[in-house]
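Handout for the seminar on molecular recognition.
Each group receives one record of this type.
Step one: identify the two inputs.
Step two: read the structure output and locate the region that could contact iron/sulfur cluster.
Step three: write two sentences on what you found, then compare them with the reference statements printed after the record.
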Amino acid sequence: MTGRDGMVESLIYTKPVSLTERATHYCPGCTHGISHRLVAEVIDEMGRRETTIGVAPVGCSVFAYDYFNMDFAEAAHGRAPAMATGLKRVSPDRLVFTYQGDGDLASIGAAEILHAAGRGENITVIFINNAIYGMTGGQMAPTTLPGQKTTSTPSGRDIEMHGFPLKMCEILSQMDGAAYIVRRSLHDVAHIRKAKKAIRQAFEVQEQGIGFSMVELLSSCPTNWGISAQEALTWVEEHMVPAFPLGDYKVHASINAGKKG
Amino acid sequence: MTGRDGMVESLIYTKPVSLTERATHYCPGCTHGISHRLVAEVIDEMGRRETTIGVAPVGCSVFAYDYFNMDFAEAAHGRAPAMATGLKRVSPDRLVFTYQGDGDLASIGAAEILHAAGRGENITVIFINNAIYGMTGGQMAPTTLPGQKTTSTPSGRDIEMHGFPLKMCEILSQMDGAAYIVRRSLHDVAHIRKAKKAIRQAFEVQEQGIGFSMVELLSSCPTNWGISAQEALTWVEEHMVPAFPLGDYKVHASINAGKKG
Amino acid sequence: MASGYIEIDEELCKGCELCTTVCPKDLLEMALDRFTPKGYHPAELVDPEGACTGCAICSVICPDAAITVYRFVPAEKAGVS
Amino acid sequence: MASGYIEIDEELCKGCELCTTVCPKDLLEMALDRFTPKGYHPAELVDPEGACTGCAICSVICPDAAITVYRFVPAEKAGVS
Amino acid sequence: MQTEIIISGFGGQGALFAGQLLAYTGLDHGLHVTWFPSYGPEMRGGTAHCTVILSDDEIGSPVVKNPSAAIVMNIPSLEKYEPLVASDGVLVVNTSLIDRHATRQDIDIIEVPANEIAEELGEKRLANLVLTGALIERLGVLTIEQVGKSLGNHIPEHRRNLLESNREALQRGAEIAQRAVQPG
Amino acid sequence: MQTEIIISGFGGQGALFAGQLLAYTGLDHGLHVTWFPSYGPEMRGGTAHCTVILSDDEIGSPVVKNPSAAIVMNIPSLEKYEPLVASDGVLVVNTSLIDRHATRQDIDIIEVPANEIAEELGEKRLANLVLTGALIERLGVLTIEQVGKSLGNHIPEHRRNLLESNREALQRGAEIAQRAVQPG
Amino acid sequence: MGKELLKGNIAFAEAAIRAGCEAYFGYPITPQTEALEHMSRRMPELGRVFLQAESEIAAINMVYGAACAGVRVMTSSSSPGVSLMMEGLSYIAGSEVPVVLVNIMRGGPGLGNIAPSQGDYNQIVKGGGHGDYKPIVLAPATIQELIDLTFEAFDLAEKYRTIVVVLADGSIGQMMEPAELPPMQPVRAFDGRPEWALTGAVDRTPNVVSSIYIDPVEEEIFNLKLVEKQKQIEAEQVRSHKLWMDDAEIAVIAFGTAGRIAQTAVRDARSQGLNVGLLRPISLYPYPYDSVREVAEQVQRILVVEMNGGQMLDDVRLAVEGRVGVDFYGRMGGVVPLPDEVYEQIQKTYAQRANGR
Amino acid sequence: MGKELLKGNIAFAEAAIRAGCEAYFGYPITPQTEALEHMSRRMPELGRVFLQAESEIAAINMVYGAACAGVRVMTSSSSPGVSLMMEGLSYIAGSEVPVVLVNIMRGGPGLGNIAPSQGDYNQIVKGGGHGDYKPIVLAPATIQELIDLTFEAFDLAEKYRTIVVVLADGSIGQMMEPAELPPMQPVRAFDGRPEWALTGAVDRTPNVVSSIYIDPVEEEIFNLKLVEKQKQIEAEQVRSHKLWMDDAEIAVIAFGTAGRIAQTAVRDARSQGLNVGLLRPISLYPYPYDSVREVAEQVQRILVVEMNGGQMLDDVRLAVEGRVGVDFYGRMGGVVPLPDEVYEQIQKTYAQRANGR
Ligand SMILES: Cc1ncc(C[n+]2csc(CCOP(=O)(O)OP(=O)(O)O)c2C)c(N)n1
Ligand SMILES: Cc1ncc(C[n+]2csc(CCOP(=O)(O)OP(=O)(O)O)c2C)c(N)n1
Ligand code: SF4
Ligand code: SF4
Ligand code: SF4
Ligand code: SF4
Ligand code: SF4
Ligand code: SF4
Ligand SMILES: [Mg+2]
Ligand SMILES: [Mg+2]
């Protein structure tokens, strides 16, 4: 409709079709919501909503299937990569992705993610690293930083007792089957935009059958960190980014590769 | 006793005390026997037979406890690192080691080994990589080489179907908690000697409380490879060594470090 | 003259305040005078001078996809309809 | 004069032949004339000329710790008793 | 004699703590008590409620169908619990977040603008205690003084500095309850 | 009529294959059969044995306590099965690896230097068939010809070139059994 | 197609293939490994999916994933491996996708040994995973039955959207016996996948497969739906095999391998003039309670034979309800009872038959 | 020490500490996580071992390892997490090391929900792991009982070298109730560890802890040893609680939370003049069959109440053996029955009491 001064009103941004209308149960300011949005936007843009199957984890994003407007399965805790493998093998022309938290992927599901990557399983993994077990109320995750207080490390993560944070990009990039392994952050607009590009790339890697792709997203959990949404993003930037360097850890030769950062 | 020509007979080598008298059930020429011997020799030399606790895996070496002359536990398949963690945490001044095959450690037990390394669990892992599931009769292991025929990859391991061999040293050396991660081979006398040195180093790392140590030993399985013991060693040299490069993958700064090879 | 504006869906907004920190024109505020059905103070566009450019930066950070962004573009540049 | 010799425990030897491939003096052979209790032909030291140096290389590769190695050393070099 | 109280609201509104306070008070004053929460951050964003039972006899079930009293802190809680309160029971409604009236005629309904009062007291998280004060005033099982005393015994160390404003919140709630007209 | 045969030796001596051959022969010639192995390379270095049952009726248990016949290929097998063979049963002993004699008087004992014969035939892995030939000769349930024929039907492709030496091994075993003096 | 001499493990794997099984995920474990090995050769050659998983946990969750896509899928394992599948099985039950599992049981507990056992009866039949659910459990006693039940298992799994477990012991996995394989069924086309399956939401609202019902009331409704389904299964799928029961004064009850061993013993007893009958339950869930009850009403005493410490025994006693005495003979830890031992027990039970409970 | 208001999860964790528990390994899961959190604070401050494992599988195998060293060790979890422990538990049973497990059950199957449930009765009591074994299973109904049973569990585990499971539902884990904690027991010194333990073979022949008996005959001997031990446990450890049974015409049987809810309902019924009694089994293994039998001999009808689809029901029926009719009232999927509902069921059973089975 043409408006004043010969200008027309143009819709620049609205909720992607790959998300349902439903309000999420996430806490205010939780970056799970941003991740959902980015994935949905990418799937919208690729025109794959009807040919994508998602696998939800056990974690705060357990109800992801209520928010993504596409076929979805709910996995057992940590087993999403195995479930996705089953789905993908029998439906190779569907896009299959898992959406997993750090407890789910790096702790209980460590074997499944390692082997999915090792097999070069042609799936995409969206990995939400918020350095905590969100859903169960804030216990230590494998990615919890040294010294970080959680409900199961009340005096801060003691590396003598609980060891060091696991760096999943670094580990999985060692796998020959891994095609695209990158880490991005959601702590500000610029980084969110980069994260979206990486998600797009990851799904394209799958579409082209190049192999296993994973995008790790440094994320916030204001509720269990006990700070505001904005403070939480600052915490991501100031504490998580140094501990989990952003970058492209593995980019298969046949990908029109992006650069570090 | 003084003999002819003023010479005395001196015992140069005999079965180590840390091994029992029992004959093993291993197939003729199987390098499990060599690994056992090396570990036992090292424990003898360190004088730790009485203060060492071993953990046997499920695999051909399931009866390791019959052959090692020391306290031993038998773990569930793949869970030796968790069991060793339990043992070590409540008896921190004991030497605790696991002895694990590639199926046990790299397949079903992938999560447990990854996390033991990540925690910097102060245990030693002897990892027998023979590129096959010996005990169950020769199925594909995570370390089976591309193209290698096994009873579950009858036309050779197809990387499209089963992905790439897992390189555990490369993966585990990514863990901050890992103190000593090296790969050696048992295919000839010179390499066997190097392997022993590494095993010694690994136990010393534990004794000094530096962190997680693992020695991967490229090994043979003449029975399931269907070749003679000698041919099997040649196969290790010619096929496994190129695929799994020997070397020191992680040597913690506080270790009087050895060099590559 | 505003070259854009946004709408905030109050069913979705959880009052996290993130959008208010990123708007380059500082046009977003929390509506402390009311609650959303979920009990939060929603964000609202306060743009008396029509400064919103429709840059969509706010929507990039909104975790709840609560923000819809419109821009006024020259008719010739706009897509069909 | 032999400067060493070995003993092979036939309860342990499984006839894998590995020792026979590594002896620098080529002194080890499989005893095809007999079986061990487990049914293998054991290895044996065939050293008519006393060439064994007691170098212990054979024992390094033996998977079954079946080989015991002795060496003749000057009395003064030998340890106590 | 057994009194069952349900306190229900959004997660974060302090329903669980208010219930614990009542349970502690009961225990401190010689009653059998149970406190039973709806639990689990796995239900993030949903409602949180707890059931407190105060009794002079051994308590069987820690849950009941028809409680003697309920505090409802949001609309879903009102919808769920208004019909369940036992006849002649007490229903305390947080009008700050509930824009409709309870309709039952056979129970004692107290409307409390708890959030507003709490904000007046300078600490919006005190709404739960305002409501609790109102309930206690009408329930007749424990007194505001008893609750205030137990609060002093059991308040977590790091919140001890807030003890006075907590007691004030209880008091303000009680006052509202005194002023409110009894229905029927 | 039901005949139960146990064949036992070290792993690798071909006890399992010999048993399968008997089962195939039974099947090819209209009998009910079962073949039941001790299994699992998890018992590397232990003994391997199998039980074959040939019957003109439905077979219940695939295992029995007192078999009609046994082939024992090493000392542990002799010790285990000699006492178990049913009275009037047949026991075939591989004297190449067993340096003592079986002692039972109520069974038919055949001593066969199977490894030596096999090595004469140029293929030491044929000892199992030499022993099988001896058993068949005495058992009276199947004939050497039948077994030889079934061997032709079921021998794996890659071993087909060995068919003739396999048959020869059976034959040699049978000859020994013909020559051997019946005890008692 | 005539009878071939088939080893149990190969037989059930091939039967699954013939039933149109489109994907197999598994992990080696004695005494079922030959099934995995057979699949590793056959599935790729038929253009179907074979994958050796990194563990039984991964295997059952891959199975779960493939089942969500609406294909016929199976796994097989043995006791310790099956223990690792308990969480996955509970999830599968909680989301009603059809799955076939073959458990070739071995001696336990723990690592135990690899010998034939029936020690997982309770685990499989009573529910080793958390929560209320019951898989259909079928217990073959011969290779032919193993083939037929595995073949049918896929139909049952789909008909009821349930787990079907074929429960056999190591001797059935390892034994060779003549049997006939069914003809090859075609694999279902992508378009023919069930409407609830995750195939991509083309022209329809999205499908979700989940085992969550966060509201207990909804979970209860779901649980009651499962109960309803169980009632239907109990009405339709009870199977057992009776032999020589007509004039029996005592009955032997045994399943699987114990059943066929008992059959020999009962035949021997018959030939000695003892009036003994045999009841061999084939479906362990749904359990043939009615048949056992009928037997209990007819005979004077019952002997239960199992290769465990007396697990099915409870189900027998639930049906007998004290009507007659129930004796038990069990061998544990991988020991397979011999017909002679069972025969001896039959004699004892027979001698006791007039003595009541 | 007087009574404190204690939350179930904190209470059992602290009770374990008081019992001299030297090591805790666990993984967070609602509704038991507060126990792990309590341990994470208390154990290090007491110089004992706390470790958050990477999974329940790792947790149970760490427990297994520590148990081999002869220390008092425990883990706790909830239904799906417990399913993952089945292999480990079977191994532990197969090697006879003492271990304490607390299962705070939630609604299932699958991910289900986090509400209180008794849906794991079969899994825990009948054996969710492979092979023949039976852990001692204790089911508290109050926080005090939870404390006392957890405290005692360590003694029992060591006395019989067995697994002891404290089986409770989410409401017991989450509820606060006044209770008294036992005094602190000292932790055993290294030198005082049992002689079978893996402590290093100083001046003795090596110890081995293993669950392998590769020879079935030896495995059977081991199995029979477990059976013997079970007989001893069955003779010594049966526990149940009877209320108002003296003149009861019908009885309600229920355990744990269902038991205390039933207690309210029975009291209400009594106050209405109905002659109703209550039997609350406390040990689920060994099950109080004799008490149930006595009850069945006394009353005219029985009502079983559970928070599942009727799992303990089978054990009741095994004891009742058809003597009287047994009614069942169950709520599933995390729904906690209210006393009023149970009261209604009591009325029905009461009305039916003269009508036989
Ligand atoms: C087998 C099992 N163990 C434990 C749990 C409890 N649990 C639910 S979510 C979760 C961790 C979630 O953390 P993460 O994966 O980091 O996701 P987040 O909530 O932080 O997004 C745990 C331990 C479970 N549901 N199942
Ligand atoms: C839970 C479980 N799954 C499978 C098995 C069967 N199993 C025994 S050993 C083994 C693999 C052994 O291979 P590896 O670890 O490489 O040891 P190797 O025999 O080659 O030394 C398997 C799969 C088992 N015992 N338990
Ligand atoms: S608990 Fe943390 S991760 Fe979970 S929804 Fe809330 S903020 Fe997000
Ligand atoms: S099967 Fe292989 S690994 Fe096992 S004992 Fe024999 S040679 Fe060694
Ligand atoms: S579109 Fe741009 S200018 Fe307008 S409110 Fe959003 S961020 Fe501010
Ligand atoms: S970012 Fe979104 S949810 Fe947050 S305050 Fe702004 S509009 Fe509301
Ligand atoms: S000691 Fe040396 S020389 Fe003597 S036999 Fe052995 S390898 Fe040969
Ligand atoms: S290496 Fe050892 S086992 Fe092998 S033949 Fe020589 S002595 Fe025998
Ligand atoms: Mg997280
Ligand atoms: Mg191996």
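Reference statements: Helices of chain F lie at 15-28, 75-81, 114-120, 127-139, 144-154, 163-179. Chain F is about 40% helix and 20% strand.
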